[in-house]
Amino acid sequence: MKVHFLGVGEACDPEHCNTSLLVLSGSKNHYILLDCGFTTPHRYFKDCSDPEQLEALWISHFHGDHFFGVPLLLLRFWEMGRTRPLLLVGPSGLQEKVEMALDLAYPGFGRKLRYAVQYLVVAEGDSFTAAGFAWQTAAMDHSQPCLAVRLTSEGKSLLYSGDGRCTGPVADLARGCDLIIQETYRVSGETPGHGSVAGSLALARQAGCLKLALVHIGRLEREGAAEKLRKLCPQGEVLAVLLPEAGETLVL
């Protein structure tokens, strides 16, 4: 499994694209995009030139920095001549929200698409198979209903939080993952409904995870984050804590 970080920033960060990840399932070349915010499509097409490559798109919740890029993604695929169906997976209201956003961005454009957009609505606690992966979901603690997702393929698993603070079901879902990708808005202290360094470290240690990637760090706290992390992570600890940058790829 490979994880390509298209963006690692929060909603208002001018230096870092919105958090979004492209996940590749090993030998069978199944590609899934995790979240698609305002800035995601430009970065996606900078790194991915094949309009048929993407098989599925996961939307964790309906804040703009996680799904307002969908209209542009669909438009660009149409412009590039895509014919392969695209599966959209996400919480209740998925089809209505996406079609509303598409019609607001480009009125009537949805009728012009030459490829099928398919919708799979899921709820917390669901387990299913799609696009070459086994999927499991759990609810985060966030101001907007948000689902974390665990993806498993060819013996490797990752957990992607979307936004929010970890809950008991999310901690259970994270057990045994090879990688946790956690929204960590706060480096110091806590903000209701958001992740923190302390909470992210506790989650990874409890889950027995060996790799933790911190994303969506608040733009006002990003400077000096690496130094603060070094102080919080004892020397010799098995857990590897990563601060990925856009364009980086992690192989599991």
Automatic annotation (TrEMBL):
Matches recorded under PANTHER family: ZINC PHOSPHODIESTERASE ELAC PROTEIN 1
Protein name (Swiss-Prot/TrEMBL): MBL fold metallo-hydrolase
Pfam families, per the entry: Anti-Pycsar_Apyc1
Matches recorded under InterPro entries: Metallo-B-lactamas, RibonucZ/Hydroxyglut_hydro
Residue ranges annotated for the Metallo-beta-lactamase domain, each copy included: 16-219
GO MF annotations, alphabetized: 3'-tRNA processing endoribonuclease activity
Organism: Thiovibrio frasassiensis
